[in-house]
């Protein structure tokens, strides 16, 4: 039996043929009529692997996921009612083979919680930067004991704005007595441009 795996369970029309004892071309014809009747959805179709003796040319169907499982059971019920139990057993084997242990599920859940927690912390940190510690270029320079002329402050403001945009750090306008309003920047941005 041929099983295609990519972390999802699947079954091919070849497997259905082998389980039912019905020729592959007849299984494919049945699949086609079930698709036409709207009973099953059109499954993935793949080229057959070519054996060294040149056999198995053409295509086969691949049923995957829950919908594929349902549709493959409908196909086997149509081509060979007695073989229906065999295909149900085969799907059960695939499910057991691909089942995750409770420890693996717990590890995945823990990792997901950790990632969500990290995302929330990052968002809160960004919000705190925007609301609490943003400063204008002149205010930052004064706090650090650096004297700047208006033209130097303007040039550094342009650099701070460009760096903020590149890094995706918000720029916050604040009121200013002389100019009406000026931009304020995150301390790490101002620290970098004045280093």
Quick rundown:
This protein has helices spanning 13-20, 24-36, 65-79, 84-98, 102-133, 137-143, 150-167, 187-193, and strands spanning 10-12, 44-47, 59-64, 172-176, 180-184.
List keywords for this structure.
disordered N terminus; two-stranded antiparallel ribbon; rod-shaped; mainly alpha; 5 strands; 195 residues; single chain; three-stranded antiparallel beta sheet
Molecular structure report:
- The structure is a single chain.
- With 195 residues, the chain is mainly alpha-helical.
- It folds into three domains: 10-99, no CATH class; 100-129; 134-195, no CATH class.
- It contains eight helices and five strands, in the order E-H-H-E-E-H-H-H-H-H-E-E-H.
- A three-stranded antiparallel sheet has the order 1-3-2. It has a two-stranded antiparallel ribbon with strand order 4-5.
- The longest helix is centred in the middle third of the chain and has 32 residues, at 102-133.
- The model is unreliable at 1-7 (pLDDT under 50).
Strand ordering within the main sheet: 1-3-2
Give the DSSP E fraction (strand runs of 2 or more residues): 5-15%
Backbone structural class? mainly alpha
The helix fraction, in percent, is 55-70%
pLDDT < 50 stretches: 1-7
Average residue pLDDT: 82
Bulk shape: rod-shaped
Q: Treating each run of at least 4 consecutive H or I residues as one helix, how many helices?
A: 8
In total, how many beta strands?
Answer: 5
Task: Describe the secondary-structure layout.
Blueprint (H helix, E strand, L loop, with lengths): L9 E3 H8 L3 H13 L7 E4 L11 E6 H15 L4 H15 L3 H32 L3 H7 L6 H18 L4 E5 L3 E5 L2 H7 L2
Antiparallel strand pairs: 1-3, 2-3, 4-5
Helix pairs in contact: 1-2, 2-3, 3-4
């Amino acid at each position: 039996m041929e099983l295609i795996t990519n972390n999802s369970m699947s079954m091919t029309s070849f497997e259905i043929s082998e389980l039912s004892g019905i020729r592959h071309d007849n299984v494919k014809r049945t699949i086609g009529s079930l698709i036409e009747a709207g009973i099953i959805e059109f499954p993935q179709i793949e080229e057959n692997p070519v054996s060294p003796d040149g056999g198995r040319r053409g295509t086969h169907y691949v049923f995957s996921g829950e919908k594929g499982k349902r549709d493959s059971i409908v196909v086997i019920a149509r081509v060979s009612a007695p073989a229906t139990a065999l295909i149900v057993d085969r799907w059960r084997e695939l499910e057991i083979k691909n089942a995750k242990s409770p420890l693996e599920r717990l590890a995945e859940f823990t990792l997901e919680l950790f990632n969500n927690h990290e995302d929330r912390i990052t968002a809160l940190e960004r919000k705190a930067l925007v609301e609490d510690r943003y400063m204008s270029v002149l205010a930052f320079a004064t706090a650090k004991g650096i004297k700047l002329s208006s033209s130097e402050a303007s040039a550094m403001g342009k650099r701070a704005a460009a760096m903020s945009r590149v890094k995706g750090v918000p720029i916050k306008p604040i009121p200013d007595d002389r100019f009406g309003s000026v931009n304020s920047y995150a301390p790490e941005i101002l620290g970098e441009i004045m280093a």
